[in-house]
């Protein structure tokens, strides 16, 4: 009489860990790719290559790829589009792996949102080109990138750390963290408006939003300084209460925000050089990802074991 082989606990654990590692790699790839495309999109704008490809999805009315007459601008814009396709592919792979490995409803939902919004982002990119880089469409394009990075960061946290347990942080500490993230959102919004008033339109003929850039730089700085102050308070609370992972993330976030402030002051005084502006853009979404992790770290993982409950249930099933 035949019997179904029963895996030992160690063998089951090895299978689960192997699955978890592959899912972790896919999650990190999703997050990193969403951050990188902010950098490539910034390069398009800062080099004046926003209309390097005059059509979408074709680069020109006659050609899908750039033609020599478009020069370096066509190559830069087309390179960003190619990377956008890779980002979509990575997001789809993550979603398929989450479904196949039964990663749990939360992770599958987050992965689905990332896929859907990444496709939407590509379509908005087409609108940006068709509207000749209108600052409002460019701003929406960037806002959606921030949302995608945050979603990918939360998804990666859920994959790597696992489901959250009950809240252990003090109420005052929680309020401080949420106030910090709210001010961070304001900083990003005002930053987009400031960029829309400045010289980096993505093309020499693109319109600006009509705001005074010298005034907007100050308006952008005020919530930035408030963010630094709130992060100092969050850091003090984390030192007093922990938990340790939360403290490490707060320290990392504080360090990156201080770097961002220094770069912001430098770029303002140096006349907005494209290298510093590009770094400033990428750091803004990295800070958004770190801010999301700081919020999530207020709750310890539901289990201390490195293997998530959903993964073990998948193997048991």
UniProtKB/TrEMBL annotation:
Pathway of action: Porphyrin-containing compound metabolism
Transmembrane parts of this sequence: 23-44, 82-100, 107-133, 139-161, 173-193, 222-240, 247-266, 272-296
Compartments reported by the entry: Membrane
InterPro entries: COX15/CtaA_fam (IPR003780), COX15/CtaA_HemeA_synthase (IPR050450)
UniProt membrane topology term: Multi-pass membrane protein
Pfam family, one: COX15-CtaA
Keywords recorded for this protein, A-Z: Cell membrane, Disulfide bond, Heme biosynthesis, Iron, Membrane, Metal-binding, Oxidoreductase, Transmembrane, Transmembrane helix
Annotated protein name in UniProt: Cytochrome b561
């Amino acid at each position: 009489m035949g019997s179904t082989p029963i895996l030992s606990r160690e063998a089951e654990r090895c299978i689960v860990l192997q699955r978890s590692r592959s899912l972790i790699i896919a999650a990190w790839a999703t997050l990193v790719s969403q951050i990188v495309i902010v950098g490539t999109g910034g390069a398009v704008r800062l080099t004046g290559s926003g209309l390097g490809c005059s059509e979408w999805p074709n680069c020109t009315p006659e050609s899908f790829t750039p033609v020599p007459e478009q020069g370096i601008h066509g190559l830069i814009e087309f390179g960003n589009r190619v990377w956008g396709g890779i980002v979509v592919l990575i997001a789809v792979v993550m979603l398929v792996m989450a479904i196949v490995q039964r990663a749990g409803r939360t992770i599958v939902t987050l992965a689905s949102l990332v896929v859907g919004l990444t496709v939407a982002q590509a379509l908005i990119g087409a609108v940006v080109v068709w509207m000749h880089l209108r600052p409002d469409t460019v701003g929406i394009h960037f806002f959606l990138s921030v949302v995608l990075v945050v979603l990918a960061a939360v998804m990666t946290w859920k994959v790597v750390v696992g489901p959250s347990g009950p809240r252990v942080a003090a109420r005052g500490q929680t309020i401080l963290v949420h106030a910090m993230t709210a001010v961070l959102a304001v900083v990003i919004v005002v930053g987009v408006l400031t960029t829309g008033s400045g010289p980096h339109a993505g093309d020499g003929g693109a319109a600006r939003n009509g705001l005074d850039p010298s005034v907007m730089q100050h308006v952008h700085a005020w919530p930035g300084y408030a963010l630094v102050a709130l992060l100092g308070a969050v850091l003090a609370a984390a030192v007093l209460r922990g938990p340790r992972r939360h403290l490490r993330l707060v320290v990392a976030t504080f360090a990156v925000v201080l770097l961002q402030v220094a770069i912001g002051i430098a770029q303002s005084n140096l006349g907005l050089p494209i290298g510093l502006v590009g770094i400033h853009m990428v750091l803004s979404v990295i800070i958004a990802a770190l801010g999301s992790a700081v919020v999530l770290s207020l709750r310890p993982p539901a289990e201390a074991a490195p293997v998530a409950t959903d993964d073990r249930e998948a193997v048991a099933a």
